[in-house]
Amino acid sequence: MRIANAAGEQVHVVESGEGPPLLLASGLGGAWFDWDPTVELLREDHRVVVYDNPGLGRSPAAQAPPSLRRNVRIMAALADEIGPPVTVLAHSMGAFTAEALARLHPELLNGLVLVDPSQERDPCARPRLAAALDPLARALGTGLNATRLARLAGPAGRRLVLRFTSDRDDTVPAETVRDVYGRGTVLGTIVAEELAYREMAADLDALRDRRPFPDLPLVVLTALGDAGPSWAEGHRRLAAMSPRGRQVELPRAKHMLQLDRPDAIADAVAAVAKP
After folding, report:
1. Rounded to an integer, what distance in angstroms lies between the CA atom of residue 83 and that of residue 230?
2. Rounded distance between C-alpha atoms, residue 128 and residue 232, angstroms
3. Number of H helices, E strands in the chain
4. Going by C-beta distance under 8 Å and a sequence separation of 6 or more, which residues neighbour residue 126?
5. CA distance 202 to 128
6. DSSP letter string over 33-89?
7. What pTM value is reported for the model?
8. How far apart are CA 106 and CA 99, in angstroms?
9. 41, 119, 238, 256: which is deepest, by most CB within 10 A?
């Protein structure tokens, strides 16, 4: 584990294995250990690098508010440090960043695996308030720390979210979960990311009009456990962005595929890495 400087931010990075590089990005509020079962399968044949967004996991507090532009700069800096081309695996909201990186810096990438990616058909973000509200989100985190409510609310919230998004418990000790989700910084950052979600979706939608998706291998994994037909249809559209794109539907699977279906993610990586 280490703290890396990436585009003006400090991010917690966990690296293991040797071979072709993989860069793993979590979704909203995610932490590095969400990927542990997937990393176990991938590190035998790959150099696997997982990072926490600023303010999340064990990363220090962010210098800049969450935004698509900031997140792309971070992912690009890490990809460049690892040694391109890299294969990016991105979960949920992290897929916004991965797709934007592919459109802006295709030279850094070998391919993409989008793990039950977030999607918005017609995103709209007016007025844009996320940056203005970011200090309030930080203050909330500070207040939760000062009153010790963070130590209670954070881990409890994590358990509640996991109950609906996964069929398994956390893969790390309860103490590690408390150390991460009991931090007011993490809870404030989660609120800030939620506030920025629609703006990121709108910024990605605008980028799609300006920059075509490159001819890169792309696999979109769809969790169908609690999803309706529109979710799968949206993922089919994402897969169709690339002439080498395909979608894989996983019946009965829940959103946290990196915990529940690491085998499907490993298969997708093998397909993307295939010459």
Report:
1. 37
2. 29
3. 10, 8
4. none
5. 10
6. GGGHHHHHHHTTTSEEEEEPPTTSTTPPPPSS---HHHHHHHHHHHHHHH-SSEEEE
7. 0.95
8. 10
9. 256
C-alpha 172, offset from chain centre:
19
CATH no. of 2-122+198-273: 3.40.50.1820
The domain limits of the chain are 2-122+198-273
- DSSP-derived 3-state class of residue 245: strand
Q: Greatest CA separation found in the chain?
A: 55
Q: Which structure tokens are listed for 194? A: 């939620």
Q: Residue 188: phi, psi to the nearest 5?
A: -65, -40
- Within 211-253, residue ranges assigned H as helices are 229-239
Reading the chain (275 residues) residue by residue, the pLDDT tens digits are 899 999 999 999 999 999 999 999 999 999 999 999 999 999 999 999 999 999 999 999 999 999 999 999 999 999 999 999 999 999 999 999 999 999 999 999 999 999 999 998 888 777 888 999 999 999 999 999 888 889 899 999 999 999 999 999 899 999 999 999 999 999 999 999 999 999 999 999 999 999 999 999 999 999 998 777 889 999 999 999 999 999 999 999 999 999 999 999 999 999 997 64
What does the DSSP assignment read for 171-193? SS-HHHHHHHHT-HHHHHHHHHH
Q: Give the position of tokens 């900031």.
A: 70
Calculate helix-pair angle for 184-210, 94-104, nearest 10 degrees. 40
For 224, the token pair is 């169908």
- Find out whether 238 and 265 touch, Cβ atoms under 8 Å: no
